[in-house]
Specification:
264 residues; Alpha/beta knot; Trp Operon Repressor, Chain A; 2 domains; five-stranded parallel beta sheet; two-stranded antiparallel ribbon; 9 helices; binds 6-chloroguanine
């Protein structure tokens, strides 16, 4: 899959993605990354791409023409129109199913804004999807673009060493992942759950599924509405909800783990 990123900070994207798993996939040619510096399309020798907003107000606005020219440069090389995502807090919130949709594309353009945004007129001309990564404000679209590319990339065949691992993880089943343990068997007096050492695969699977349901009930009860549970599992869930009622280990706003918070 080929990602084109239109940005004022190409080195941020390059440094972030040519590392770790995405870095290896790029080297292997499973992915391709084309960063395009919008400043190269400024059309003036100062490389100025922003100006004051009409109507007044704080900050600067990225001008339409450099963005348009950068986009034209990319689509002309592709020889066809390309799905083009504008990363903005005003967009639809990114989620796993959205990533699965984007992963079907052969090429994707991601447009990163800065300052107070981009002139609306060019957005109307080139953008097919407006995407946010959550309800908080960042300084620019580069980190969101990297978040999207990372999420989409791991769905591309061959990017993860284990082809099955992408499918069974968090959210696919609308359940959170079960807890993981590795050596040593006892760490600071805390033992690994014995079932994991039993070698009984059936029991291990059962325990993991139960843990997934428990932590989803505790941390992300909103996800449970979409989860596909057996009658027996629904029974377990009811009991879990009962036992959580008495519990007050988590504060309601920051969702801090109070046991660790009070120790600090
Ligand atoms: Cl896509 N951009 C910016 N600037 N802030 C964000 C965002 C995007 N998503 C969440 N916050």
């Amino acid at each position: 899959m080929k990602f084109h990123v239109l940005t004022l900070f190409p080195e941020m994207i390059e440094n972030g993605l040519r590392t770790s798993i995405t870095g290896r996939a790029l080297e292997k040619g499973l992915l391709s990354l084309d960063t395009v510096n919008i400043r190269d399309f400024a059309g003036n020798k100062h490389g100025k791409v922003d100006d004051y907003p009409y109507g007044g107000g704080a900050g600067m606005v990225m001008q339409a023409e450099p963005v348009y020219a950068a986009h034209q440069y990319v689509t002309a090389r592709a020889g066809r129109p390309l799905r083009t995502v504008y990363l903005t807090p005003q967009g639809r919130t990114f989620h796993q199913e959205m990533a699965e949709e984007f992963a079907k594309e052969e090429e994707l353009v991601l447009l990163c804004g800065h300052y107070e945004g981009i002139d609306e007129r060019v957005l109307e001309e080139i953008v097919t999807d407006f995407v946010s990564i959550g309800d908080y404000v960042l300084t620019g679209g580069e980190l969101p673009a990297m978040v999207m590319i990372d999420t989409i990339s791991r769905l591309v065949e061959g990017v993860l060493n284990n082809e099955t691992s992408a499918e069974f993880e968090s959210f696919h089943d609308s359940l959170l992942e079960y807890p993981q343990y590795s050596r040593p068997e006892v760490w600071r007096g805390k033992a690994v759950p014995p079932v994991l050492l039993s070698g009984h695969h059936g029991n291990v699977e059962k325990w993991r599924r139960e843990q997934s349901i428990r932590r989803t009930a505790k941390w992300r009860p909103d996800l449970l509405e979409k989860a596909d549970l057996t009658d027996k599992e629904k029974e377990l869930l009811k009991k879990e909800k009962e036992s959580l009622k008495g519990e007050e280990k988590w504060d309601s706003i920051g969702e801090k783990n109070l046991k660790n918070w009070l120790r600090m």
